[in-house]
Amino acid sequence: MRSSNPVFSRRGFSRDNGYAGFNTAPQAGYAQGNPYAQNPYAQNPYAQQGAPYGAMPQAPVTTDRMTMDDVVVRSAITLGTVAVGAVLAWALLPVSATSYGLAIGAALVAMVLAMVQSFKRTPVPALILGYAAFEGVFLGVVSEMYNSRWSGAPFQAVLGTMAVSAATLLVYKAGWVRVTARYARVGLSIALAFMVVMAINLLLVAFGVAEDGGLRSFGPLGALVGIVAIVLGAFFLTLDFKQIEDGIAYGAPRNESWLAAFGLTMTLVWIYVEMLRLVAIFTNND
Predict the structure, then answer these.
(1) How far is residue 191's CA from residue 172's CA, in Å, rounded to a whole number?
(2) What is the mean pLDDT of residues 79-97?
(3) Contact 86, 219 (CB under 8 A)
(4) 253 backbone dihedrals φ, ψ, rounded to 5°
(5) Buried b vs exposed e over 170-179: b needs ≥16 C-beta within 10 Å?
(6) pLDDT > 90? residue 197
(7) Quick check: helix, strand or coil at residue 195?
(8) CB-hemisphere CA count at 13 Å for 53?
(9) Element at 232 (helix H, strand E)
(10) In the prediction, which pLDDT does 215 show?
(11) How far is it, in rounded angstroms, from Cα 9 to Cα 157?
């Protein structure tokens, strides 16, 4: 079953989606001639039905299959929409209580759009780009607010996000991390526990029980929590990379590239926000 949480809703890692589910058993015959045979959970529902036992699964005959170029283009469009929204919000909305309220509203709309998309079986580009636009507005306002207090923090956060992404891709492609069913279960359990703790912390802060942000303070504890969050973001990136790899290998429909772009965008936004906080914390302690 796909999670209702858009962060955890990963196409390709759920029971009811189109391909390569973590919760599905591997098909027989994957070991011969398949470079992805080391994947202990992959199952290709796009394979022809009725193939003889032990035969290598074949993708359906179609030219409308997802490619790496499709993923790159859709990801560029989605991230570009986030960037445009952020630039416009930064340029048009001065730092004020009103702009902060607009940022919160934009974040809520983006969350709703992301959750709606997560419940759909097929990608809806309008929902994905709408999410990207509203998320961009939120990031633009928040980035401007951080920059007004910690000059250059957004630029450093962008560089940090790029560094984490590149390092994660390098580790993944080098095979130092193998995205297995066990890896995903353990990682998602940790991520879920982290988010539950953060939600409780938010409630404690809201009711005045915890001071100075509690676990999300701008001190050493806040820095530690931020590092954990960035590591979780890197974990989500490995799931995104595996999703893309499996989608291309097993002949997923071309429109699935929108879901790959959606997942990458959500993960990169997660890492950027946490990196922004981390830069501010380290700047405070200089």
Answers:
(1) 19
(2) 92
(3) no
(4) -60, 150
(5) eebeeeebeb
(6) yes
(7) helix
(8) 0
(9) helix 220-249
(10) 87
(11) 25
